[in-house]
User: What shape does this take?
Amino acid sequence: MENQLTIKNMKTILTSNKPEYLTMMKNIDSKLPAVEQACSNFYKTSSQFKNVTLDVTAITPIRSIKHTLAEIEKTKSAVKQSMIKSKKSNVRLKKYKVQFEESTDELEKELLEIKILELQDGIQSTKDYLEGAIRKMNFFINQYSELLKHIGVEEITEEMYEKEENRYHIMTAMKQALSAARTKGGLIDEGNHIYLFDLGINGGAAQVEVFNYLKMENELINNGSEPTHEMSIRWLEKCADKFEKDPKTFVERRGFKLLDEQSLTNFKIEKMPTKP
Assistant: This one.
């Protein structure tokens, strides 16, 4: 039984063999293998470019690692499910083939043949997307290695992740505040003022930083120069330096502890001295 889209099985679904359709089918038959090969490049959810620009958008390195690991886990889970689905389909396919060989009822054999073709098509489709998922997982594993190399460590700990969260949220809040201000006459919007308040950062102080940065950009433009993305990143880093202590102060004022080292999964607790 054939599983390919060929002239032979395309003709079986046509009510008439008009010359123009025969010509089209011959053209399809001759060019389809190359088209299918080209299609194999796109059996994945996103391009590598989109993965590292629009999918993983974290502005600090360890947050980027967290998002990268999340993509790996999500893709790994999808790969596992696809493999299970493929195994089930292959078992059903073997079963239908046995039934086809043993059947003496021609109509039943025709129905079994259709079921076999459906399963073969599904198995091939699963295989195509599985290969795309494997390429995506390999890409993110390589990105994880690059990120570790970028920050000069061999592994990250939960403690490192928790400590970086302070800078991540300050920089994210200020990034969003700046983006909103660009469309609102230089003013931070309400949502980001709430975000800043919850971080313990005074909205007026953040507004001053945004005003001064936009003023500097406008001066560059008026003088014939152009601001750069790198300038914005450096400004965000300076904002993180300036407001770094504010979240801790606000958290402690409310009675919380910002970092409980005893609750970290990979924090080594010193052994208690044994009683004599």
Summary: The mean pLDDT is 90. Residues 69 and 233 are 24 Å apart (CA to CA). Residues 158-256 form one domain.
